[in-house]
Amino acid sequence: xxxxxxxxxxxxxxxxxxxxxxxxxxxxxxxxxxxxxxxxxxxxxxxxxxxxxxxxxxxxxxxxxxxxxxxxxxxxxxxxxxxxxxxxxxxxxxxxxxxxxxxxxxxxxxxxxxxxxxxxxxxxxxxxxxxxxxxxxxxxxxxxxxxxxxxxxxxxxxxxxxxxxxxxxxxxxxxxxxxxxxxxxxxxxxxxxxxxxxxxxxxxxxxxxxxxxxxxxxxxxxxxxxxxxxxxxxxxxxxxxxxxxxxxxxxxxxxxxxxxxxxxxxxxxxxxxxxxxxxxxxxxxxx
Length: 287
Prior knowledge:
Blueprint: E1 3-5, E2 13-16, H1 22-32, E3 43-45, H2 53-65, H3 70-83, H4 86-99, H5 104-116, H6 120-133, H7 138-150, H8 154-166, H9 172-184, H10 188-201, H11 207-218, H12 222-235, H13 240-252, H14 256-269, H15 274-286
Antiparallel strand pairs: 1-2, 2-3
């Protein structure tokens, strides 16, 4: 999700998430009578400038002036993480935790990097460690909840997102991810409520609009779904899912030419995106 991901420092990173397409929901509604969602993940959007020689030198000078301060390593580790230099990021978080074993934010930051390295077991262990130190740390519940979702442990994920919400989190991901689970369970009214709450917290993030639009499609509310998918495209026109979702509404309206055009655009953005491949095959044959 293209929201602001906060490494637990003054630095931030962008996250994006892949969502189930509206076409997949329609297919599942017709075949199984229920909807599903995609797996959601926190992907660090790389910002190479964070790893620039100038930026790292500046952060290193802070560390040199106070080498026993774990926060300096935590901040530099976050910069390394955003730049894609995961090994150095892990090294810095390790040092921060050696200096302060109770530094729960550093555990959560290291967990985020581990997730992006494809190491969910290590990431979950770090989120657990953070929560053992601070049982009210909403960021760790959200991060661990995403790992549970990817592992198919939906009830545990739901519990983590609920806990973050009970803690009055201001992170829209908690509502967004809980909405995805409601969507998976076929409770689209509650899903829409949660996506709307996520939108209120992160109005510039396109993914909650896509999520809400998918549930509107499941309710046969194509007008509201189309508005949400178009807003998602306005906010970020580089997401294949948004274009494929828009295409589905055109297809449902019988406008095969526009549907094929949007499906084609989705495939230009992501040639491996199956809902767009399938949609384009349908609309090309029918056109």
